[in-house]
Amino acid sequence: MGFTSDSFRLDGRRALITGSGKGIGLELARGLGAAGARVVINDRNADKARRVASQLQEEGIDADFAVFDVTDRAQLLEAINHLEATRGAIDILVNNAGIQRRAPLEDFDPNDWHALMRVNLDGVFHVSQAVARHMIARGRGKIINICSVQSELARPTIAPYAASKGAVKMLTKGMCAEWARHGIQANGLAPGYFATEMNRALVDNQEFSQWLCKRTPAGRWGRVEELCGAAVFLASPASDFINGQTLFVDGGLTSVV
Ligand code: NAP
């Protein structure tokens, strides 16, 4: 089929977004839903997942939910296999669940290191493997891994987070290396600085906020809805020959020193 504006549509496609009870994940669900996808909200808390899905339904989006923790392999395998068996194919996976921990590297608590890696990196591995097995059998699928400007750039007190997001960028290339031949496109989406709960400490810090606005060519924080265009693009047929890339949505931050 030649290119038309329909190449960006996601009608009839089911998208699972991990950690989508709030923040960037919720906004990405909204954006994918606006482009026609049936979205599946994931949260560890069943009441919250149900509430968020029904809120999206009220907004006119076809929304369902799946309850699992991305660090609990047995639980997520069961939930994903159940989704596939009872609702149908997961065509689009967005690995969004993530956490942040801040401390000087020399004092960083090893328990925090492991907690961070379990969610930000192991979680992407477990969920992607569970979903990709179904995608491979179908010969098609889209995987979007939420990376970060910290996939490329370090900052004091968040070295472990940067290590986890750098690893997700490389895991994205590994997915491309092994799964492209099965019709799967795996790409990274790397947000700059967006005001969500994860960044509350930074948003509340006037000195940081002023520094960030000077450091970012666009001169401001990102708005979460500004991530949706890139997510829809990477989930849609318009990006069928793009694989293993990481798209930075950062107001130009990673392009300048
Ligand atoms: P957020 O508001 O803190 O949301 C994170 C989401 O992940 C929450 O819904 C959280 O659920 C969920 N989550 C955490 N651990 C989980 C687990 N074990 N299993 C399932 N879900 C889990 O953060 P955000 O800013 O939206 O960040 C979303 C993603 O974008 C993360 O990967 C983050 O690293 C990345 N990112 C954010 C920014 C930014 O500026 N905000 C920049 C670059 C990258 P609970 O509510 O239960 O904790």
TrEMBL record:
SMART domains: PKS_KR. Gene3D superfamilies: NAD(P)-binding Rossmann-like Domain (3.40.50.720). InterPro entries: KR_dom, NAD(P)-bd_dom_sf, Sc_DH/Rdtase_CS, SDR_fam. CDD domains: Ga5DH-like_SDR_c. Residues 13-182 form the Ketoreductase domain. Keywords: Oxidoreductase. GO terms for molecular function: glucose 1-dehydrogenase [NAD(P)+] activity. Its EC number is 1.1.1.47. Belongs to the short-chain dehydrogenases/reductases (SDR) family. This is Glucose 1-dehydrogenase. It comes from Pseudomonas kielensis.
